[in-house]
Amino acid sequence: MLDPKFSTYSNKAAKAMDDAINAPLARHTTLKIGGEADRLCQPHTKDELVELIDGLNTKGEPWFILGGGSNLLVSSEGFRGTVIRTTNLLEITNPEPGVLVASAGARLPHIAKFAASLGLSGLEFAVGIPGTVGGGVIMNCGAHGSSMSNIFVSALVFDTTTNELKTMSKDDLAFEYRRCRLDPAKHVVVEARFKMEQGAREDIERKTKENEEYRFRTQPIGTPNAGSTFKNPDPQRTAGFLLDKAGAKQLQEGQAGVSSLHANFVVNLGGATSNQVTTLLRRMQDRVHEEFDVHLSPEWKILGHFTDSEKEVWKKS
Ligand SMILES: Cc1cc2nc3c(=O)[nH]c(=O)nc-3n(C[C@H](O)[C@H](O)[C@H](O)COP(=O)(O)OP(=O)(O)OC[C@H]3O[C@@H](n4cnc5c(N)ncnc54)[C@H](O)[C@@H]3O)c2cc1C
Predict the structure, then answer these.
(1) Is residue 65 a contact partner of residue 293, using CB atoms and an 8 Å limit?
(2) How much is the mean pLDDT over the chain?
(3) What are the structural domain ranges in the chain?
(4) Is domain 92-215 in CATH 3.30.465.10, yes or no?
(5) What is the pLDDT of residue 251?
(6) What global pTM score does this model have?
(7) Is the CB of residue 43 below 6 angstroms from any atom belonging to ligand 1?
(8) What is the topology classification, in CATH, of domain 11-85?
(9) How far apart are CA 289 and CA 294, in angstroms?
């Protein structure tokens, strides 16, 4: 039974979606941190997704769009509003040679392996990135010398400022390193279209597997984390290199620690809080600033309540 305070959208849509009240978000983030959301909705179709957001907007209720939760720090105090998780929107199609169209919640490792099985080259880089297509576009995620922007053609976006579904091109999105022009508070990626090169299937599958295995060797895959914590300040000096040289691998704050395998990975050693993580991030920034006079900016997004002092970590410098 739905809580009556959440009466925004039609009964038909409510029944079709997985709805939960007071839903612990730690279950839906790779860091395994996050208090409860007032409500969690997991639409099964694009229409349900759009109808839900439209309804919440009309009522002025706060909402947040969540993909794989793999680039996100959620407050241990949770989020007062509705979290809309896209991971039931899984469709991937190959409508014409060299083209893949994927729904927002399709997992990047899945689409990378699907592309490889069709002999399509371009997504090999994404096999070890545990996010979704929507989160991948927003973050312009990348690895192994490539990124989303290299294969992106267009996205179907629900623009909540005008209440319209529109197709946006690569130029519209103006991709940069780990960002694009879309604001997830206003623009929801519903699906994306990618163009890839046809190649030899065996070679593409081998490269994809190599990239996957490289991850297992170099990243703390078995311990909850959210990937790279800070952006690289420049291509020559990665955040991981600077953190390692500054001795950050020794740092621990409560149950949040820096991975001994990769200095730019923060791991949840079991029961870490968002406050412990932000304190650790500040100490990592301070170490690199003292050693190299370089300010590191977090790659992660945040959700929920953070104090002004915690939010300082996300300030430019
Ligand atoms: C082990 C590990 C390895 C990683 N390796 C890499 C790597 O090599 N390269 C890299 O770039 N990243 C990496 N990441 C980080 C992360 O996987 C990527 O940033 C990914 O693109 C995030 O996708 P997501 O679906 O999990 O987004 P989330 O964490 O769920 O959300 C991130 C942001 O995107 C927004 N968002 C999500 N879906 C939508 C949508 N449909 N429409 C609008 N906004 C949306 C959210 O509101 C939020 O602001 C790694 C993470 C982990 C845990």
Answers:
(1) no
(2) 93
(3) 11-85, 92-215, 222-314
(4) yes
(5) 97
(6) 0.94
(7) no
(8) 3.30.43
(9) 5
